Amino acid sequence: MDFWSTLWDTFTNPSNNIYPDEPANARGASSLLCIDVFFHIVRNTNGTDAFLPPNLDDVVSNLNEFYSPHNIVINNLGSDFIDDTNFLTLFNGEQDALFDRNQRTDAINFYITNSLWGTVVGVADDIPSTSLVIREDWVLTSISAHEFGHCLNLYHTFQGSSFAPNTTCAEAIMDLIAILVEI
Ligand SMILES: [Zn+2]
Predict the structure, then answer these.
(1) Range 11-23 burial, b when 16+ CB lie within 10 A, else e
(2) How far is the C-alpha of 60 from the C-alpha of 144, rounded, in Å?
(3) Is residue 148 part of a domain?
(4) Å from CA of 158 to ligand 1 middle
(5) How many angstroms separate the alpha carbon of residue 33 from the centre of ligand 1?
(6) Which residues, in sequence order, are CB contacts of 72 under 8 Å at separation 6+?
């Protein structure tokens, strides 16, 4: 079974959602999975920074804080820049064009830009998918692990419920409020 098949198999059942507060290996991969992440930082067209880039090792450390107890290790494969001012402010739907830029097939593509539409601070391309984008001032929050979870086929723990939890301090990473700050 190849890597992606193994990963999908691990999470195919929505009841397998990850709960970081549970004991290691209670839910999650049965054997160690290493997932590469590649960062794409949007800058001005002239190549200058539009915002202070976050420390990417810190971002990976935060991701591993959530995922390593579940036998999933995130590896920083590297980063590049997308020098295009048009992508610094994304309106709903424009993230698709961004995801076409510098897309790598060997990693989860983690895009960082200046702002998204409305109050949205992060969005994954799909569940599952290989791309996500996070607003730069939210990259070092648990939103990154949440969107990463969508890429790994994780749904909201309130999926199928009529009421989303009205909280931003939920115990499980996939309980994070979706309606106001992310998709
Ligand atoms: Zn979500």
Answers:
(1) beeeebbbbbeee
(2) 9
(3) yes
(4) 10
(5) 22
(6) 28, 29, 32, 33, 35, 152
83 C-alpha to center of ligand 1: Å?
28
CA of 6 to the centre of ligand 1 (A): 22
Phi, psi of 91 (to 5 degrees): -95, 160
Is the preceding omega at residue 128 within 30 degrees of 0, hence cis? Answer: yes
Asked whether 172 and 18 are in contact (CB, 8 A), the reply is yes
**CA distance to 9, 61, 104, 145, 160, per residue, from 142 (Å):** 25, 11, 24, 5, 22
Q: What is the largest CA-CA distance in the chain?
A: 49
Range of the domain at 47: 3-175
On whether residue 155 sits in a domain, the answer given is: yes
pTM of the model: 0.77
pLDDT (mean) for 159-175: 51
Domain count, the chain: 1
Both structure tokens of 72 = 């999933």
**Ion ligand 1 — residues with CB under 5 Å?**
178
Residue type, 2: D
Q: Which run of H or of E encompasses 79?
A: strand 72-83
Q: What is the mean pLDDT of residues 57-70?
A: 94
Mean pLDDT score of the chain, rounded to an integer?
A: 80
